Amino acid sequence: MDDNAVEILLVEDNPEDIELTLRALKKSKLANNIVVAEDGEEALDFIFARGKYSDRSIVRSPKVILLDLKLPKVSGIDVLREIKKDPRTSIIPVVILTSSTQEVDMEESYKLGANSYIVKPVNFENFIQSLRQMNDYWLVLNRLPSR
Amino acid sequence: MSLEEIRSDSAERRSGFLDEIESLLNPVLEVGSDGSVIFQNAACLSILSLNGLKDPGIFLPDELSQEIWKSKDPFSFNYEKTIGENIFFVSLNRVPGTDIARVYAFDITQKKVQERRLNETKELLSKVIGSVTDMLYALDKELRYIYWNRASEEMTGLKYIDVIGKHVTEVFPENATTAKAMASYRRVLQRGKPESSIFEYSNRIKTSILEINIYPLGEGVSVFARDITEQKNVEKKLEIERRKLRQILDYIPEGIYMVNENYDIEYVNPVLIEKYGPIEGRKCYEFFQGLDAPCAWCKQDKILSGQPVRWERRSERSGRIYDLIDIPVFNNDGSLSKLQVVHDVTDTRTYQEKVEQLNAELEARVAERTTQLEAVNKELEAFAYSVSHDLRAPLRAVDGYSRIVEEDYANVLDSEGLRLFGVIKRNIKKMDQLILDLLALSRVNRTELVKSKLDMTAMVNSIFNEVVTVEVRGKVKLSVQKLPEVYGDSVMMKQVWINLLSNALKFSALREVITIEVGGYSENGTNTYYVKDNGVGFNQKYANKVFEIFQRLHSSREFEGTGVGLSIVQRIIHRHGGSVRAEGEEGRGATFYVSIPER
Question: Where in chain B are the domains?
Fold first, then answer.
């Protein structure tokens, strides 16, 4: 495994949520290499190695993407659609991470090929619990097919 | 003259007499006192020979006493004798001063037959007259009764013998009716022409109406009287009915008229006369339209085929709209008349148009409102979305950073500081629950119902196991009756049971034994379900408040809650077209009822 490989791409615009999520992930020793994109456009730039990430290689894709739905510029749903549309990225597991309990979102996300859906609980401990479960599944158990 | 003297009478004189007798066509014979036949003429002989007889004594009486000859007095006998088929009137007379009787026989056969026939005719006539059940009587020219039949006896109660030969005024009281009758009799007598009139005759029992026909009868009159009381009553009824019908036609606000096949007006009711003027033998098209030929739109063809027609027409002249009903009426002579009912529906049509216009406007307004509502709904959806997303995010931050402070600065905080953080976290939790409940409530309003047949008994049992916590499971006594099935939205109905059952558990939590009873019944197409607990209950005067949003009857210190759960129940039941109610008593438990249509 490449040490520099990005383990998690966190797409989140809320700075507090970013801080809390990073703290939770790190404190639980869940992931070492976490990249944060603060809007949909940046996320797509990173994933498809363009814009300020044009020197990146597209094949070194993150092992999992934590995607908030409510994002500036390009919405989370659109980001998801782009990822799943492109055969080079469609295989990356995407976990929808949002505070929305709206069923329309959930349905829409699954339709577009989201792999999991986590409603961010207010209670921080519950959130950590959710993240850990997510991590166990997508980073430990769910191996990507080797390229 | 003695017998001998006669015998010896001048032959000349006697022979001349006998010659005369001989020539007579009637049988004549002479017999002596000793019974011997002295003479018989040719007619006598021919009658006898015609009947194969010889003895002319057959013309003599059956017994002729010898005594009568003893005196010299003349005698005479008249009698009838039948010889063969002939009947004879026989006269036997003593020839004066002699002992000879001369017998003359006259053939009266013809007369007898006529007499018998006459009698027979008389009998028949009296039978015929007797069979007549109408009054029949006759009066002579003096107005005295000469005939009075049985029906007359029955009608008047006056017997034949009490009437015959008496004058009208001796039989009937002198009153107006009698005077009128007598005047009629006299007119017929005078003019010799029959007359008819109607009389009212009253005896002690009843009044009858008599139709009297008086016929001249030679020197008198015959009267034929018939009781027409019954017939008159029927006629009177018919007349009354006719009058009623006419009244209906006269007072009916609709125009009604009748025309024959030639468009001649046979009847027009007053409404139409008032509007169009007198009929004056005009044709219908002249009367109504002022045309000189039948109207182009006339439905006469249909009527002539015997079919009623209902149609509508807008008059070009008046601009009014008429609902017309044409009814064929069959006449006795086989022709058809048209009865038309004219109903002015202009106002009705105008109202209808107005109503339709208003309806259209209303529909447009409803559509507009619906669009507005849909827009509002969309806004609401967006609002709910941001509530769930944007309100929860800062809450999450508050919670998260509180924990960071607790974890990273635990050594700087005293126990009071830690207690205060506890208060913050408890309130965060509460606010989060409030937001989630609000979202659930808004979802109930927005989500479309998907109905299916629901096994409520199974649903209650499975949900109870989901909502009951480990801590209280041991002390709960749940009884679930067989609940009627219902058509409803499965997700929403589950929410109803979750809320009702968790409510019951929550408010009974302090009891040593929690008793929860779930029941239901079907009545007039409506299913009612209830959940009864033995919890803290509530005051019945607040029964309506329990379903109001954010309305709580207990403090948060006693029982946690946001006051949204029962509101959600109410919304779901209302969306199913049902109703909710609650019964409670402080300290003695509560019962919540939900009623929803079976389908």
Answer: 3-113, 132-232, 252-344, 350-427, 447-597
The CATH-assigned architecture of domain A8-141 is: 3-Layer(aba) Sandwich (3.40)
Q: Which helix (H) or strand (E) holds B329?
A: strand B321-330
CA-CA distance, A28 to A26, in Å (whole number)? 5
pLDDT by residue, tens only, chain B of 599 residues: 555 665 555 555 666 777 777 777 888 888 888 888 888 888 888 888 888 888 888 888 877 777 788 888 888 889 888 888 888 999 989 888 888 888 999 988 888 889 989 999 999 988 887 778 888 999 999 999 999 988 888 888 889 999 999 999 998 888 888 888 899 999 999 998 999 888 888 877 778 888 899 999 888 999 998 888 888 888 888 888 888 888 888 888 888 988 988 898 888 888 888 888 887 778 888 888 888 888 888 888 888 888 889 999 888 888 888 999 999 988 888 888 999 999 889 998 889 989 999 999 999 999 999 889 888 877 877 777 677 667 777 888 888 888 888 888 888 888 888 888 888 888 888 888 888 887 777 777 777 888 899 999 999 999 998 888 888 888 889 999 999 999 999 989 999 999 999 989 988 888 899 999 999 999 888 999 999 999 988 888 888 888 887 777 777 667 777 778 888 899 899 989 999 999 988 888 999 999 999 87
- Helices (H) and strands (E) counted in chain B, each on its own, are 19, 22
Closest residue in B to A102 (Cα) is: B385
Q: Is the domain covering B3-113 a CATH 3.30.450.20 domain? A: yes
Tokens 């003895």 sit on residue: B55
Interface contact A122-B439, CB threshold 8 A: no
CA nearest to A98 within chain B = B389
A122 touches chain B (CB under 8 A): yes
Model confidence, pTM: 0.44
Give the CATH number of domain B447-597; options: 3.30.360.10, 3.40.190.10, 3.30.1340.30, 3.30.565.10: 3.30.565.10
**Which secondary-structure segment (H or E) carries A44?**
helix A40-47
**φ/ψ (deg, to 5) at B383:** -65, -45
In CATH, which of 3.30.420.10, 3.30.565.10, 3.30.450.20, 3.30.870.10 is domain B132-232?
3.30.450.20
DSSP string, A74-121: S-HHHHHHHHHHSTTTTTS-EEEEES---HHHHHHHHHHT-SEEEE--
What is the CATH code of the structural domain delimited by B252-344? 3.30.450.20
Query: Is B10 strand, coil or helix?
Result: coil
- CA distances in angstroms from B270 to B204, B239, B287, B403, listed in the order given: 47, 20, 14, 100
Residue among B378, B385, B430 with most chain A CBs within 10 A, to mutate: B385
CB B88 within 8 A of CB B26: no
Distance between CA B514 and CA B208 in Å, rounded? 96
CB nearest B393 (choices: A23, A99, A125): A99
Helix, strand, or coil here: B574?
A: helix
- Listed by start position, the domains of chain A span 8-141
Q: In this complex, is the C-beta atom of A23 within 8 Å of any C-beta atom belonging to chain B?
A: yes
CB atoms within 10 A of CB B267: 14
